[in-house]
Amino acid sequence: MARPSAYLQTSKHSVFYFRIRVPDTVRQLIPQTYLRRSLQTKCRRQAIVRSALILDQVQSLFSQAEGGKGVDVSVLSWKRSERPLNQSQTPVQAAPAVPEKSSPKLSTVLQQYLKAQRLDGVGEKTLGDKKSIVELLIRIVGDLPIHRYQRQQAQKFKETALQLPPRVNQKGKVPLEQLIADAETTISTTTFNNYVKYLTAFFGYAVQEEYCEKNPFDGMKVKQRVKASEGRCRFTEDDLKRLFAADVYARRDGDKPYQYWLPLLGLYTGARMNELCQLYLDDVVTINGIDCIYFREGRDDQKLKTPTSERVVPIHSKLKEAGFLQYVEQRRELGEDGMLFDLVRHKRHGYAATPSKWFARYRDKLGFKGGDEKKDFHSFRHTVADHLKQLGVAESLIGGILGHQTGGITFSRYGKDFKPEVLVSVVELITF
């Protein structure tokens, strides 16, 4: 007989079937033209394996029929049947189990996934986050052949992860049981849903590459009965007074200019910290007579979150009054390696690694940590968005400043980026 794959067919729903013609010599004992069985899979690799199991049984039944023995074709199945055979039947020897090497372990698929993601241009920080979550799954469930991850394993991950403290992968090799016992707080629902998002994407890749049939993490997210806008809090007027009344603003920029300028730039541009930290001096540009900051991927070490994050934002008059343009000119005159700030690039966190830790300590010192309010550097972005929203500014204009895609196909496909002269009046509405 031919190879097992020669007997495969698919239904209109893409489910594979095993189908074989009954030889004329045994048609009296098997009064059917064809034998057909559903393989209950859309994965070709799995279908071939199951087809081989049935083919082995078919060969045995045909041999029995040619010898004049009665046969029961209803026992044909790729599953191991527990139904006893008729006495007239010769027991069919079960095909040997498929070796585990036919389905690679999760850790092996992870390496292939990360390689594919790099080719797609995914940044190192995001890759690191994805890798750490898949490794957490391995810690909880084990490094199994990937086809063995079913809903049961996903449920076990969910039950365990929701009991873990934040930043569990930064706690070394402490046993998970001990981390759970010692945890004063556990990860938030938002954090867990981010875990699920990464795992869903990972297993989506595995299904696409036919390593497994189903995505065990589909629909695993925990529903939240809160608005997305409540995930992180904006800064109030009193918060801003405390932030900008600190010593660093009394002595101007001091030895570390980024500590002076980053919060101000965050407040008057709404930009992400990494977007600001990776700026070069030639990203401060003049377009149509308007001083602007050009957020772009102009160099290999500049990464934006999405393609729509590339934008030109006019420089607020308050930043000019604070001496930002003079600072830029001083840097240019010194010939400092072209960057706006003296920062060391971290492989995973980019240029924002050191400033991010500094601002976290700065925030904690001012008492913004704790309670139900989540305030960090990203809160500047929420502050700008909410401030302009309350003034009735169109969503598309706010998106033009923050680098968000808004609207339908008319704006996203046919519309061009806003010109600086359109955005300058909107930027000047940011007043505190």
From TrEMBL:
Pfam families in the cross-refs: DUF6538 (PF20172), Phage_integrase (PF00589)
Keyword match Magnesium: no
Keyword presence, Chaperone: no
Gene Ontology terms for molecular function: DNA binding
InterPro entries reported in the protein's UniProt record: DNA_brk_join_enz, DUF6538, Integrase-like_cat_sf, Integrase_catalytic, Integrase_recombinase_N, Tyrosine_recombinase_XerCD
Domain Tyr recombinase intervals: 230-428
Biological processes per GO annotation: DNA integration; DNA recombination
CDD domains per the UniProt record, alphabetical: INT_C_like_1
Keywords, sorted A to Z: DNA integration, DNA recombination, DNA-binding
Family: Belongs to the 'phage' integrase family.
Name of the protein in question: Tyr recombinase domain-containing protein
Organism this protein belongs to: Marinobacterium aestuarii
Source organism phylogeny: Bacteria, Pseudomonadati, Pseudomonadota, Gammaproteobacteria, Oceanospirillales
